[in-house]
Amino acid sequence: MRFIALALGALFLFGSIASAKDKDSRPYQGPIIDVHLHAYPADGNGPAPNAVCPGVAANLEYDPQTPWPAKMGALMTDPPCDDPILGPATDEEVRDETIAIMKKYNIKGVLSGPAARIADWQAAAPGLFIAGRELSLKRDDVSAAEIEAEFENGAFEVLAEVTNQYRGFLADDPAFDAYWAVAAEHDIPVGLHLGIGPPGAPMLYPDFRVQTPLRIEAILNRHQTLRVYLMHAGFPFADDL
Ligand SMILES: [Zn+2]
User: Fold this and answer.
1) Ligand 1 center to residue 194 CA distance, Å?
2) Tell me, what DSSP letter sits at residue 81?
3) To bridge 188 with a disulfide, which of 92, 98, 183, 199 should be the other Cys (CB 3.0-4.6 Å)?
4) How far is the CA of 131 from the centre of ligand 1 (A)?
5) 28: CA distance to ligand 1 center in Å?
6) How far apart are CA 182 and CA 178, in angstroms?
7) Cβ distance 122 to 112 under 8 Å?
8) Contacts 24+ apart (CB under 8 A), 56-63
9) Residues with Cβ within 5 Å of ion ligand 1?
10) What's the distance, CA 38 to chain centroid?
11) Least confidently predicted of 10-24, 59-73, 226-240
12) Distance, CA 54 to ligand 1 centroid (Å)?
């Protein structure tokens, strides 16, 4: 259930991207680096295949008497439109359809998700995926020293996606200081989730906190060689960004 709204958001974004010019008319033909790619299971959002009605997020009618996760789930299991977009039915389809579209558009991706699934995707398409290491304080019981050891052992190349805000930790929270220090020392790129969350975030994650890009300022001042990319483009805080 935790990925429902993330996937919804991704689909809405994808809709606008897909309507852009086709591949052959684009002036840029070089590789695209997708720095926000997840290896998640087909049922990560609920029973597969998930269904999404284009534009549904623009008109979410919601009665708080119904639990939000149930409302979200029903949008997919009982989509309120005649021609919903259907997601992949199996984990293999998620992987293989992702690989196919990446090859079509010359995309390489920083992939996060369970380590075994990342390894599986890498084996299925050598050279296409850069291993990420997702991290969320309080959800993941892993110290900064353990992250450092994983990196030194070659387990990952990018620390992403960092989703601490889902559990109330913003970028400059002292609880994450040691992790920033490890990333800076080893020149590990960090992909940080910021901005707002999925629709109904506080009902899915009671500790969720909205995060402005300004929250990263103190960290960048402290670690001036640190490489960070801000996921979701800082939306909706363009001025802060
Ligand atoms: Zn993400």
Assistant:
1) 10
2) S
3) 183
4) 14
5) 25
6) 6
7) no
8) 56/8, 56/80, 56/81, 57/8, 57/9, 57/12, 57/199, 60/199, 62/200
9) 161
10) 6
11) 10-24
12) 20
Distance CA 126, CA 216 (A): 34
Neighbours of 199 (CB within 10 A): 19
Report how far ligand 1's centroid is from the alpha carbon of 239 (Å).
22
**Distance from Cα 68 to the centre of ligand 1, integer Å:** 20
The dihedrals phi and psi of 106, each to the nearest 5 degrees, come to 60, 55
Q: How many CA within 13 A on the CB side of residue 70?
A: 5
CA-based nearest residue to 93, from 144, 24, 42, 54? 42
Question: What is the Å distance from ligand 1's center to 178 Cα?
Answer: 23
pLDDT in tens, 26-41: 688 789 999 999 999 9
Residue 140 has pLDDT above 60, yes or no: yes
Kindly report, residue by residue over 163-181, the tens digit of the pLDDT.
999 999 999 999 999 999 9
